[in-house]
Amino acid sequence: MNDMTRFDREGEARAILARNDRGGYTVPTDRLYPFQWNWDSAFVAMGFALFDPDRAYRELERLAEGQWDDGMIPHIVFHAPSDTYFPGPEVWGTRHRIATSGITQPPVFGMALRHVHEAAVKAGLPGADERTRVLFQAALRSHRWWLRARDPEGLGLVAILHPWESGSDNSPAWDVALARVPATTTTVIRRKDTGHVDASMRPRDEDYQRFIHLVDTYRDCGWDPQRQWASAPFKIADVQMTAILARATADLMHLAETFGTSEERSELADMHQRLTEGLARRWRLELSRFVSLDLISGEDVEAPTQACFMPLVALHLDDAQRGAVTTEIERWRQGMVVGLPTTPAFSPAFEPKRYWRGPVWAVVNWLLADGLRMNGAEDLACQIERGTVQAIERAGFCEYFDPTTGEGLGGDSFSWTAAAYMVLRRRSGAPATGAGAT
Ligand code: GLC
Q1: Minimal CB count within 10 Å: which of 15, 263, 292, 432?
Q2: Are 89 and 123 in contact (CB under 8 A)?
Q3: Could you report the per-residue pLDDT of 220-266, keeping only the tens digit for each?
Q4: Any bridge partners for residue 294, and if so which?
Q5: Stretch (H or E) spanning 159
């Protein structure tokens, strides 16, 4: 790949972000996802930080407009109407100042804030500190919400009440738990996704009904966190979510040195300790990975998925763990054109083209490579980053990639793939940056 091609792709990446801009926030892609999505925007903000820190702050500020009074940052903010997506605001029936969904998504926000702040300071952006100070408080309120609403029993693990909260919506990790959820709905389902992308890549209808059953259930609880916790038919203490929250907490601890009070600093340190201890207990040496916990059945979630490695972004593994994890990741990459598959090919659940059941996501690789680097596995981190960059250069800025062929799938002109391209291209050639560096 020569420099000229790379330069062109960088221009294309920026053009995608510009095209998906709807006024200070970026839609993941036109039509298929026509609103602001929570973790997408956090990744996009880190992409913008490379060349326009002011716009990077705007992305986070617009997301924070959707934050509820109790601290939750919703998974979708419906800033402007669109009829190309289901379920829209009328199905969620939430009561925030602006229309939002009623569930959340991985809290990459705190990681992004540190990243944007550092880029803004480096660029000498006027007013950066003031903007960081406000967003730091938003992030802190959201972390408090996580622990209060989603770890009321103090396990040191936060739970998802809906597969869509995980960000890995259709992952085999949810199959056993989701099968217990009734497929009956009071909402009339009008799927729009299968009108934009081939149905063979999307969740099956019966699972979709279960997704909506959960929405109906929580709407009937008036979106009250305690009532939802008590009546949730799906409740999984998720290692991916907990790892991202723990890592974002570490990034907030760093920001708190400048922007926090001493109480806030110790509050964050306690939060961090609780989450990292909770995560550490989920390690399974015999599997060479971490496992989530189904809080309804009390059983470990056995399905191997990318989530099982996500604790690397938050924990410093010991030598035995690091060796086991890197060997296992290598095994998952074997025979693949692009790694890392979100479900390994040896799993019976592997489907290389279906949503979260095998395909490669650039942002997942972004986090995993970050965690590997943080744990001293620089070579493997670089290989994963380079593989991602090459997949994008070959197939374009698709939503995700078939690991067995490298084919680009799902929606195209995808914002977070564009952001990932810009960030990973720089990182893959860069020397090790150490813990907490994003
Ligand atoms: C899908 C993904 C989710 C993402 C959203 C918008 O729902 O599973 O992680 O945030 O699309 O890109």
Answers
A1: 263
A2: no
A3: 999 999 999 999 999 999 999 999 999 999 999 999 999 999 999 99
A4: 236
A5: strand 159-160
Low-confidence ranges of the chain (pLDDT < 70): 1-8, 430-438
Count of alpha carbons within 13 Å of 80, Cβ hemisphere only?
10
SS3 192: coil
Ligand 1, atom 9, lies closest to the CA of 167
pLDDT at 433: 37
Q: What is the pLDDT of residue 194?
A: 85
pLDDT of 113: 99
In the set 165, 399, 402, 407, the catalytic residue is 399
Q: Is 399 a catalytic residue?
A: yes
The 10 Å Cβ neighbour count of residue 186 is: 11
Helix (H, G, I), strand (E, B) or coil at 84: coil
Q: How far apart are CA 316 and CA 86, in angstroms?
A: 40
* Catalytic residue selected from 169, 300, 351, 378: 169
pLDDT reported for residue 6: 57
Q: Is 206 exposed, middle or buried (0-12, 13-18, 19+ CB in 10 A)?
A: exposed
